[in-house]
Amino acid sequence: MGDSSTESESTVRSPQCVTSATNAMDECASGRPVVLFNDADPDDGGALAFAACQATTALVAFTVRHTSGYVCVPMTGSDCDRLDLPPIPVTGQSGRTSAYTVTVDAKAGITTGISAVDRAHTIRRLADPRSAAGDFTRPGHIVPVRVADRGVLDHAGLAEAAVDLARLAGLASVGVFGQIVSVNDPGALAGREELQMFADANGLAYLTVSDLVAHRRTTERRVRRIDEGRVSTSHGNFRAVHFLDELSGGQHLALVRGEPEDGEDVPILLHQECLLGDVFSSLRCDCAAQLDIALASIAATGQGAVVYLRIPGAHRTEPHRHDERVEVGSLILADLRIRSARVLPASVVTAEALRARGVRACDGSATGRRGRRRAREVVAVDGSVA
After folding, report:
1. Which residues contact 35 (CB under 8 A, 6 or more apart)?
2. Residue 98 sits in the same domain as residue 79
3. Rounded to whole angstroms, what are the CA distances from 35 to 252, 299, 358?
């Protein structure tokens, strides 16, 4: 890739703060930096970010001049492993490591490694899929960072956002970022207002990490049907539909009775996996009873579905997982063509939440509520309910 030693129109353009993720990706694809702000963690501040494969002397010089000068190159775990970039141990904390890896310089094509020309060369070498571990010396002046596997969907950080931005721009999944320092308080990182002013003054795109998360969640295919079969239960036969969550890797199951496609007020239960309750009938919850009641109700009706959600790392009592359950559950219902639903009691996703996702949903029947009360009475026999 060609390089330039002067700051040209590719770095600074007419003042205009661009906020949409799509526009930010277009800017990144054209070789221009983007101002990122981590609104999910304001202490993380904001950063100038661009695609590593497009690093030029001008871009690196601009980044060093307007940031802390600590230039980081976030990369996927597979790239870090390929280039033999182990994490730096955390001093004084045995066994703990940082997302930062050993620092590097390119072995060839540079002088001291500290100049903008040299750092741009090292950055491009890190982004080159043909590079090998032996192409770099350690320690150096560039700081690689190992990012979470699913980018901002796993960890809403600046490093992950820089990698996602490069990938979504159609470039190698290696980013560059430097945290922007406050002009008003040089001992602190710039906040939201100052970052927006900086973006406007330099004609750069401005994007929050949460907007990037939202963009990925709304544009990337999340749920895919991977298998289907029949399962016999004490309440009769159900069609078992197996789903894969493309973003989290989680696998979910829908037990479907009859032909609920495009039906009205189809009874459904969205149930979060509970190993102790569902499998071992723990008396500390009534999860097994809830499943049994739902299956019995659906069997009696002749149609309906139980969506068994297996959100990785989630428990039924974790409210911060509710949005993910709503999203995955509604996507599974859409795949099953259940557009009008009667949400049975004990569902981990409410009718109101489903309505917000475009499902015509109402609350379940009184029969379901009485059944749930009976189940709770059975569970409470030994007085051990939490």
Report:
1. 46, 47, 48, 49, 180, 195, 196, 198, 199, 204, 205, 206, 207
2. yes
3. 37, 55, 34
**pLDDT tens per residue across span 309-354:** 998 665 545 555 677 888 899 999 999 999 999 999 999 999 999 9
How many domains does the chain divide into? 2
Domain finish residue from 218, 233, 261: 218
Q: What is the CA radius of gyration of the chain?
A: 26
Q: Look up the pTM and report it.
A: 0.68
Full residue range of the structural domain in which residue 287 is found: 221-382
Q: Is the dihedral of CA 22, 131, 71, 109 positive or negative?
A: negative
Beta strands at 87-89 and 97-101: parallel, antiparallel or unpaired: antiparallel
Residue range 216-262, pLDDT digits in tens: 887 887 899 999 999 999 999 999 999 999 877 889 999 999 999 88
- Measure the CA–CA gap between 141 and 146, rounded to whole angstroms: 16
How far lies 248's CA from each of 117, 217, 277, 280, 319, in Å? 39, 11, 24, 26, 18
Are 132 and 72 within one domain?
yes
Q: Which residues contact 58 (CB under 8 A, 6 or more apart)?
A: 4, 5, 6, 7, 8, 10, 11, 116
